[in-house]
Amino acid sequence: MGQFIDLTAADGQTFPAYVAEPLGKPKGAVVVLQEIFGVNSHIRDVTDGYARDGYLAVAPSTFHRVKPGVDLGYGDADMQAGFALKQAVEALPAPGAMQDIQAAIDYAAKTSGGKVGIVGYCWGGLLTWRAASTLKGLAAAAPYYGGGMTTPEELARQPQVPVQAHLSDRDQWVPMDGIEAFRKTHPAVEVFLYPANHGFNCDQRGAYDAPSAKAARERVLAFFARHVG
């Protein structure tokens, strides 16, 4: 449904982004942030799904600065490779990949002519939380189970737009005590907790939980309908 295009960040770095367009005029735009497995078939499916719901959807490659063309599966070796790539991106001098996300937001706003929401999964959930606090041009943010979101450094961030977080009750990367701290620190954030494991939205993972994925998606669509268009 979609296709890859090249975007350019503020520092001149060119990187690919998968773009899916809706039928007819977009009612807004959604930036989709990848897991640690690249803009793979699952993330492209998610991006296509937001286009089917009427949004211009853009999934930037947030690994491109350390390795181009990443498209991993969900086996143990893929997990190890993806985690190493994530660490490499996190080690980049600031703003690192955040400027690529900003370029995707800017493109989405200009091309759709509307407001922009952002959604991310796994590592992309963490980047979504950071984007809500540090980037410009967003109207709403919906992080899914962002590993590290509840560390003191991340709790200290102050989102500049409405946030709806989707977390689970058995996630080693986002433990329950961290979720409670997050709720107390950010009472204005909508937090939904699901009886599932980390990665419950991905139908290519063993952790996939269809009822939780369906409920979360319906909530995000309603959230974006309120704030994005």
Secondary structure blueprint with pairings:
Elements: E1 3-8, E2 14-20, E3 29-33, H1 41-52, E4 56-60, H2 76-90, H3 98-112, E5 116-121, H4 123-134, E6 140-144, H5 152-155, E7 164-170, H6 176-185, E8 190-197, H7 210-227
Parallel strand pairs: 3-4, 3-5, 5-6, 7-8
Antiparallel strand pairs: 1-2, 2-4
Question: Which key phrases capture this entry?
Answer:
alpha/beta, 21% strand, six-stranded mixed β-sheet, Rossmann fold, 8 strands, 7 helices, 38% helix, 229 residues, two-stranded parallel ribbon
Outline:
The chain is built from seven helices and eight strands, in the order E-E-E-H-E-H-H-E-H-E-H-E-H-E-H.
CATH superfamily: Alpha/Beta hydrolase fold, catalytic domain
Strand content: 15-25%
Structural class: alpha/beta
**Proper CATH architecture:** 3-Layer(aba) Sandwich
Q: Helicity range of the residues? A: 25-40%
The strand line-up of the biggest sheet is: 1-2-4-3-5-6
Major sheet description:
6 strands, mixed
Q: Secondary-structure element order, as H and E?
A: EEEHEHHEHEHEHEH
Measured between the Cα atoms of the first and last residue, the distance is: 22 Å
Q: If you consult CATH, what is the topology? A: Rossmann fold
Number of E strands:
8
Radius of gyration: 16 Å
Form type: globular
Mean pLDDT: 97
Low-confidence stretches: none
Query: What top-tier CATH class fits best?
Result: Alpha Beta
Task: Quickly count the helices.
Answer: 7
How many domains? The number is 1
What does this structure look like?
This protein is of the alpha/beta class and 229 residues long. It has one domain: Alpha/Beta hydrolase fold, catalytic domain (Rossmann fold, 3-Layer(aba) Sandwich). 38% of the residues lie in helices and 21% in strands. Strand 5 (116-121), helix 4 and strand 6 (140-144) form a beta-alpha-beta unit. The mean pLDDT is 97.
